[in-house]
Amino acid sequence: xxxxxxxxxxxxxxxxxxxxxxxxxxxxxxxxxxxxxxxxxxxxxxxxxxxxxxxxxxxxxxxxxxxxxxxxxxxxxxxxxxxxxxxxxxxxxxxxxxxxxxxxxxxxxxxxxxxxxxxxxxxxxxxxxxxxxxxxxxxxxxxxxxxxxxxxxxxxxxxxxxxxxxxxxxxxxxxxxxxxxxxxxxxxxxxxxxxxxxxxxxxxxxxxxxxxxxxxxxxxxxxxxxxxxxxxxxxxxxxxxxxxxxxxxxxxxxxxxxxxxxxxxxxxxxxxxxxxxxxxxxxxxxxxxxxxxxxxxxxxxxxxxxxxxxxxxxxxx
Length: 317
Ligand SMILES: NC(=O)c1ccc[n+]([C@@H]2O[C@H](COP(=O)([O-])OP(=O)(O)OC[C@H]3O[C@@H](n4cnc5c(N)ncnc54)[C@H](OP(=O)(O)O)[C@@H]3O)[C@@H](O)[C@H]2O)c1
Known about the structure:
Blueprint: E1 3-4, E2 11-16, E3 27-32, E4 40-50, H1 52-58, E5 79-87, E6 99-103, E7 112-116, E8 120-122, H2 129-148, E9 156-159, H3 165-176, E10 180-185, H4 190-196, E11 199-202, H5 207-214, E12 221-224, H6 229-237, E13 244-246, H7 250-256, H8 268-280, E14 287-292, H9 296-304, E15 311-315
Parallel strand pairs: 1-3, 9-10, 9-12, 10-11, 12-13, 14-15
Antiparallel strand pairs: 2-3, 4-5, 4-7, 4-15, 5-6, 6-8
Bound molecules: NADP nicotinamide-adenine-dinucleotide phosphate.
NADP nicotinamide-adenine-dinucleotide phosphate (NAP) binds at residues 51-53, 141, 160-161, 163-167, 184-186, 189, 203, 225-226, 230, 247-248, 260-261, 303, 306-308.
């Protein structure tokens, strides 16, 4: 059933929620169709990636960079791919009909999303829509993190949760930068990590010793995509705390003197560079789940398992 929040007017469908809660609160709703303002484009969405972030939003969390909780109904989704169908004043370089992908602040699980033109980039020819929908956020975070970690030729980088949506991209980007990568995953994902160029190690008790065994010259930098024990191991193995980034333990970073990725460093140029690597065949994005957007609740359930290879994505009808 579609729930209409308007009397009349131009409406679009979204996969959103009117009260915070479990995956079951996600419903197909109708809301006003947004219009592209100055410097913005409107995109008819073909696919939208699902991140752990979206699950927290659905449970009622407000991202710290929003001044106040957004009104209901709320629509998750920070990344999208689709076709531009409206161009606002002052936009150059893009036109109606262009195939693009980009970042939004919430709202991507929608038929239409409006974004600043500075947040979109051309979709590489040949990149499937479902890959493009899950690409921008998957590449933005590791691109920033590896820059912050100053990962380069000859470095030994430890990536925790290396088979995950962010981790698998981080592994490939670090390989492009010339680093040796040790990646943590469950046994079933070790072959996958090898295929990405990483040395796999099993997470859990004894991790530090297993890492030492495969990296006898030490670990120069670590990207923590798991938190908890993974962070403790990073603190034990990496001498320079400025070369540890956590994506999970934001609350402890300050006191520990380690890094988090800052929102200010997000730039579509990072997605554009990753798109070139994709087009060159140097970077791939594995999808562990592709769902029709009407099944957003099931997509959230899969992400909530916390396991598997790569990203979950919604495909619009
Ligand atoms: N800017 C930011 O700060 C930012 C941006 C994006 C994501 N994040 C956060 O970064 C984390 C990773 O995001 P994601 O999208 O990559 O998540 P994801 O795809 O859901 O991560 C799943 C991966 O985690 C691995 N994993 C599960 N338990 C683990 C453990 N104890 N130790 C090591 N690996 C473990 C799984 O490996 P197996 O399947 O082999 O068990 C699986 O490959 C999330 O907490 C997310 O919220 C932060």
